[in-house]
Amino acid sequence: MTILPWQQQNWEHLCDYKSQNRVPQALLISGNKGLGKQHLANQFAFSLLCAAPQNNGLHCGHCDRCLLLNAQTHPDFIQIIPDEPGKSITIGQIRSLVTRLTLKPQFDSWRVVIVSPADLMNNAAANAFLKCLEEPTERTVIILITDKPACLPATIVSRCQKLAVVKPDKETVFAWLKERNADIIHSDVITLYGLAQGSPLLALEYANDGTLTLRNDCFKAWIDIAKQRKHPVIIAEDWYKLPESPLLFWITSWIVDMIKCFYPINADWLYNPDLKESLQELSQELELKELYKLYDLILVSRQRLNTQINKQTMFEEILIKWLELNLGK
Fold first, then answer.
1. Domain 5-164: which CATH number of 3.30.70.260, 3.40.50.300, 3.40.50.2000, 3.40.50.620
2. 144 in helix, strand or coil?
3. Per-residue b or e along 138-176, where b marks 16 or more CB atoms closer than 10 Å to that residue's CB
4. pLDDT in tens, 232-243
5. Among 230, 219, 252, CA closest to 318
6. Cα–Cα distance between 33 and 299 in angstroms, integer?
7. What is the mean pLDDT of the chain?
8. Could you say which architecture CATH assigns to the domain 210-327?
9. Confidence class of residue 329 from pLDDT cuts 50, 70 and 90?
């Protein structure tokens, strides 16, 4: 395995920790989804655990310890993740980790713990986890990974060294995407970049899983509601079955782009450059202040995603408001 092109500076920083014998007891890796934070953390962990790392700092891949890592049986490599996707990391998992850390590492190098996503520790788990940071154990490195560092307790963040993975420039993303998928046409690359908000791994995932087609279908339904060809409640029932987080982002991006279309603007500045003509046509028949009201509703809806809100009712509210906005033009 190699370091992703946009992570080279991050990797050099991590290698400096090793070469200067300043490996932190706790490291917080943050950055947007789709930038490869888990990949970077794994590479650092493997490098620390490898018996004979390469000159570039990467693990050798063939020593006895690397073979254990490849088989996911290395006793000094511990991963803490939710038991089910989207669920919390529980206090039971953290208590088990605390107990395990009272024992010495089985090899003579490091022991590495990766907690991901760290922001999914519930309050009880986070409080218990502080014990790991306040009473560090022998030759142990704890790596926290998160898309949402602001959701972590300040008491945890303050005890970690920080490493932020930032978005690469467009050219780097475009080149990497075309290298990974030669069939992607340039116009789709531009669109995928916008949909993924500049995150290369997310853009590649979207290219391979049909996300672009799904987003186009949803936009067609959005237009059909504006033209009174489809009923908001019927569309909300369909949309309820889709992943709500990307769908809410798509809706947000359409509204933001329509607002931008009130002014002279280059298509490259839009989230959805391929939809510029349709978005411009829609915006010309709407009032700007009403679009801002709809935008406010979307922001509130996104904040309520992690609550017990009825998702179908949420989409009904958004789509009915969108219909009313068009009826009042």
1. 3.40.50.300
2. strand
3. ebbbbbbbbbebeebeeebbebbeebebebbeeeebbeb
4. 999 999 999 998
5. 252
6. 19
7. 92
8. Up-down Bundle (1.20)
9. low
